[in-house]
């Protein structure tokens, strides 16, 4: 009996040591941030609980991800490999020149070809800062996703994510979760997601650097986070945390917010011509409509997709 107690104590001490090491080796995430999310883990999947706002934005994020992937599918092979299945895409604005019936037929052909190519894809995803798994799970259910690896520094969030995923047989073998820092991830992925996590780290550029290294050529990095401006402070801290209470107090710190133009500049400086900004949209929450996209990505929340060339 004594031996068993000692053994358990040893395991807990080792666990604690592991946690401390993880926090130290993380890409600038303080233990306060990790403890904050650990304390919210038990209510992660309550759609009206601590992560209500993530549940509400999830469909909009999925729409964005699917649209970007669909639009970035190369419809035609190189000319030498062209087959009868390839779709003819006019190299000009055909909608303005062709009669309506013809341009509709071309559009439909393009859509159908993209859909059938999408159904055959089997993409591997790395979800950085997955928390309790809201995004990882919904990505795992998409037919063209082979596997989602979710990583987070908060062990309690990972425990919740694992346990929630076990309740859906469709997710078995499609998602896996690990308490791990990004710099310790091995292997390459077709998609890397950093959703609502860059605003919680001290060195976002280190996250960009490591996330980029984990991408396959032609892979896509998806980011959603918050610009450092007064509008963001007003909506995400003053209103959401202090007035409405739909986000737990202390979740956000204006000083950690990251401007979308700084992310673009980081890519210009570090990746030169080896990246393509596929899309960058502002996002906002409208109570009667939910999360919507808009064309002012330099204000408030935003979402973006960058492809590795
Ligand atoms: C607001 S939650 C977002 C969860 C999830 N990405 C989503 O949008 O549904 C932020 C998460 O990032 C995690 N996190 C913060 N810094 C991290 C880091 N350096 N590496 C991995 N996870 C981190 C936190 O523990 C927390 O679970």
From TrEMBL:
Q: Enumerate the UniProt keywords alphabetically.
A: Magnesium, Membrane, Metal-binding, Methyltransferase, Mitochondrion, Mitochondrion inner membrane, S-adenosyl-L-methionine, Transferase, Ubiquinone biosynthesis
| Mode of membrane association | Peripheral membrane protein
The record ties this protein, via SUPFAM superfamilies, to:
S-adenosyl-L-methionine-dependent methyltransferases (SSF53335)
| One CC-aspect GO term | extrinsic component of mitochondrial inner membrane
* One Gene Ontology term of the molecular function aspect: polyprenyldihydroxybenzoate methyltransferase activity
Classification via InterPro entries? SAM-dependent_MTases_sf, UbiG_MeTrfase
Residues noted as binding S-adenosyl-L-methionine in the record, renumbered to the chain: 61, 129, 152, 195
Query: Which family does the similarity line name?
Result: Belongs to the class I-like SAM-binding methyltransferase superfamily. UbiG/COQ3 family.
Read off the HAMAP family from this record.
Answer: UbiG
What name does UniProt use for this protein? Ubiquinone biosynthesis O-methyltransferase, mitochondrial
Q: Which gene encodes it?
A: NDAI0G04260
């Amino acid at each position: 009996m004594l031996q068993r107690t000692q053994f358990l104590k040893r395991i807990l001490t080792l666990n604690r040591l592991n946690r401390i090491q993880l926090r130290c080796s993380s890409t600038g995430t303080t233990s306060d941030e990790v403890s904050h999310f650990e304390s919210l883990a038990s209510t992660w999947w309550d759609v009206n609980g601590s992560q209500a706002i993530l549940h509400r934005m999830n469909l909009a994020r999925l729409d964005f991800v699917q649209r970007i992937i669909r639009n970035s599918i190369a419809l035609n092979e190189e000319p030498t490999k062209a087959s009868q299945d390839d779709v003819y895409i006019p190299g000009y604005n055909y909608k303005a020149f062709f009669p309506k019936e013809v341009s509709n037929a071309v559009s439909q052909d393009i859509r159908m070809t993209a859909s059938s190519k999408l159904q055959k894809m089997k993409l591997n995803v790395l979800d950085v800062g997955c928390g309790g798994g809201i995004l990882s799970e919904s990505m795992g259910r998409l037919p063209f996703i082979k596997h989602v690896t979710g990583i987070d520094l908060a062990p309690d969030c990972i425990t919740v994510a694992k346990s929630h995923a076990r309740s859906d047989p469709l997710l078995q073998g499609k998602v896996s979760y690990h308490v791990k820092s990004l710099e310790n991830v091995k292997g390459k992925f077709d998609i890397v997601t950093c959703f609502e996590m860059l605003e919680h780290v001290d060195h976002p550029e280190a996250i960009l650097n490591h996330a980029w290294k984990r991408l396959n050529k032609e892979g896509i990095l998806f980011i959603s986070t918050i610009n450092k401006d007064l509008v963001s402070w007003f909506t995400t801290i003053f209103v959401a945390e202090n007035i409405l209470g739909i986000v737990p107090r202390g979740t956000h710190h204006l000083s950690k917010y990251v401007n979308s133009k700084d992310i673009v500049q980081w890519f210009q400086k570090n990746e030169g011509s080896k990246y393509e900004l596929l899309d960058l949209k502002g996002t906002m929450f409208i109570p009667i409509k939910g999360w919507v996209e808009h064309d002012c990505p330099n204000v408030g929340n935003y979402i973006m997709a960058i492809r590795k060339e």
